Amino acid sequence: VEQMDIDCKKFAKDIRSLDKEMRSWDAFTGLDNSVKNMMTSLRAVNELQNPAIRDRHWHELMQATKVNFTMSKDTTLADLLQLNLHKFEDEVRGIVDKAVKESGMEKVLSALDSTWATMEFEHEPHSRTGIMLLKSDEVLIETLEDNQVQLQNLMASKYLAFFLQEVSGWQQKLSTADSVISIWFEVQRTWSHLESIFIGSEDIRSQLPEDSRQFDSIDKDFKELMADAVKTPNVIEATNKPGLFSKLEALQKRLAVCEKALAEYLETKRLAFPRFYFVSSADLLDILSNGNEPTEVSRHLSKLFDSLAKLKFKMSPDKKPLKTALGMFSKEEEFVPLSAECDLSGQVEVWLNRVLDSMRSTLRHLIPEAVASYEDKPREQWVFDYPAQVALTCTQIWWTTEVGMAFARLEEGYENAIKDYNKKQITQLNALISLLIGNLSAGDRMKIMTICTIDVHARDVVAKMILTKVETAQEFAWQSQLRHRWDEGQRHCYANICDAQLQYAYEYLGNTPRLVITPLTDRCYITLTQSLHLFMGGAPAGPAGTGKTETTKDLGRAVGMMVYVFNCSEQMDYKSCGNIYKGLAQTGAWGCFDEFNRIAVEVLSVIAVQVKCVQDAIRAKKKTFNFLGETISLVPSVGLFITMNPGYAGRTELPENLKALFRPCAMVVPDFELICEIMLVAEGFIDAKLLARKFITLYTLCKELLSKQDHYDWGLRAIKSVLVVAGSLQRDDPGRPEDQVLMRSLRDFNIPKIVTDDVPVFMGLIGDLFPALDVPRKRDLNFESFVRQAVLDLRLQAEDNFVLKVVQLEELLTVRHSVFVVGNAGTGKSQVMRSLNRTYQIMKRRPVWTDLNPKAVTNDELFGIINPATREWKDGL
């Protein structure tokens, strides 16, 4: 055909090159037309050679040309040319075009056929019952979605007519598969969640007999369904069984009924012991199903109480624990005997309430006892007779009393009364510091450090009152302090500040450190207590590291109150917040909502209504109130606090109706030098004032003079970690002068993170602040030899600098939760870590090493996420 085409073109050219006169001859016109028609026909024939053309297309061609012919092996070109194709050029083109498009569709459909013929469900056994469950398969879901989109596009094509039935059939099949798979996984997840509860827990079966029977029948149906599913692994066959979707829908409805019954049951337990609002449903079910086994429940105690971690049980003669508690252990292993035995039999929510009451009454008995015996012996001996919390509270009660007595003597005309008391304070404080240098158990050390921290503040307050010549106890300088007193008439401990009075809440706080009190904390205390006094919430705001959350927690500790801290995130919705408020209102505890302005704005306005509801009830002194349509009891000591970081990315402005419910309190960067001094005292340094000044000067200069690196931090947290190190060095080597100890810890814990260019500057600063001191590094030669061996094992060179880096990494890991290894590519970051890992292996320390590329996992996969459907938390990596 191509050859003929070329010949025709040649003829046409020849004809055109003939003489002009000939153009009017008939013979010329006839010849010219027949050549042109021939060319057109050949073009059409050429197109008809397309492999996409099927028989049905030839029939269409016959209809168009009105000539009947049969297409077979012996059809010749002459037969085709007889069709006069030159008259039907457009029709031919249309038919060919349609044929090509239809063959494309055919390909898509045959691909679908082959894909879904082989696509099968994967199954995995259920952990408890071993029945086969569907395994979620990303590839399957993606293929399903892609193919549905493809079919959608085919449906929109204008050449669909011939395949209409097939395409819509596929569409039907795949959309059924899609909806069945999604509901199936939903049912399967709910079933496996409820199965462990309704079938695995006898306790729940006896509590919810009706729903358990209901679940048994669901269980039977579900297992039949799954057994059937395993027989037909093909996805399309399995999902397109008649009536399957409606079966699954019915199962889903019945499961929802069981879930609702379970939720209502948990709600009744939460109302009976409101602290259950702060544990997840899974934990709560675990507690309830082991309700009759106090030893089992005791591992959950730390989630319900601030510091009560374990109970001491009464033992039977054959050394088995009985259902009676004799005392409580804190997380730090401090033991406090209960004032009366506590009975742990019966339902769990009932006996947990008894534990709560006996915890409070124990502390309420101990405080007056300790107050009475305070003067019987020197304080540094008296301290060891009582639990840390009691000793601390009584120290504060006595401080208030003694200052009051000093003012009384001042008014009687004894001029030096307050100065004398200040001298007594200094003597008492130094007696405690000398204890810190000696050998103490970890618990006692923590206790003395905490009392020191509070004492230093008490000393400074009195010194300041002497300086400003305060004459009476009514002046603001004294009224604005948090003053504890024991009221004999009421048999209660109270904390007064300005005109606000808070009753001590007797929550057992164990042996925990307390904040260093600076003028800033004092001011924040006044604002927060005033807001409680006025039945409002408190809202400390300020940049990171100014102690917003810590101050709130510390005020709670000062009045023996349980403080729950909630980290707010974008995932919080009004339901989870509502549940928290419901719990707080019934427990009377304080809730501190950290970074509150990260919650979405539309949620915040609902929260405002909830908070207002609680605050109005407290103001009206109600015993019970209506919260979100439920009547719940109210403990009026409840306090709500929110902390905010202004002007951060991803933070919202609070709506006006919410702002009106909280008293704002601006926080600024605190006085580092004061904090540093008090912490040095608490770590057992005598010459704390001078050392603190050197320390802070060094950090201020570092901030200004060293280069600005992303990983430098000269803030409060960095200061604190160095102080802890200095304290432990001081105790390891008590003979060494204090300035040497501090210099060594400053040098050895900052050098690893300082870039090479900055090292001379840093060493220069240290040299200026601690002149003529050159303390050798504390080296562990034994460890270094292990490191060298490890480095050689990894086929690397054990040069001194590299070994030093490995040792530094090891030193940092002992005082840090996590360490970043920073440097340019090829500087041996991974090798340093590998060497340390290998060293630990040689030392038989069994290190665990897991590589994780943060870009390969999403935030939710890494940190976990609340599933919006089930409100269950799924842990991240």
From TrEMBL:
Domain of life, source organism: Eukaryota
Alphabetical keyword list: ATP-binding, Cell projection, Cilium, Coiled coil, Cytoplasm, Cytoskeleton, Dynein, Microtubule, Motor protein, Nucleotide-binding, Repeat
GO cellular component: axoneme; dynein complex; microtubule
Residues of the Dynein heavy chain hydrolytic ATP-binding dynein motor region domain: 504-830
InterPro entries found in the cross-reference section: AAA_6, DHC, Dynein_2_N, Dynein_AAA1S, Dynein_heavy_linker, Dynein_linker_3, P-loop_NTPase
Keyword Ligase: no
GO aspect biological process, one term: microtubule-based movement
Subcellular localization: Cytoplasm, Cytoskeleton, Cilium axoneme
Domain Dynein heavy chain linker: from-to ranges: 1-369
GO molecular function list: ATP binding; dynein intermediate chain binding; dynein light intermediate chain binding
Main location: cytoplasm
Family to which the UniProt record says this protein belongs: Belongs to the dynein heavy chain family.
PANTHER family named in the record: DYNEIN AXONEMAL HEAVY CHAIN 17, DYNEIN HEAVY CHAIN
Protein name per Swiss-Prot or TrEMBL: Left-right dynein protein
Organism encoding this protein: Gallus gallus (Chicken)
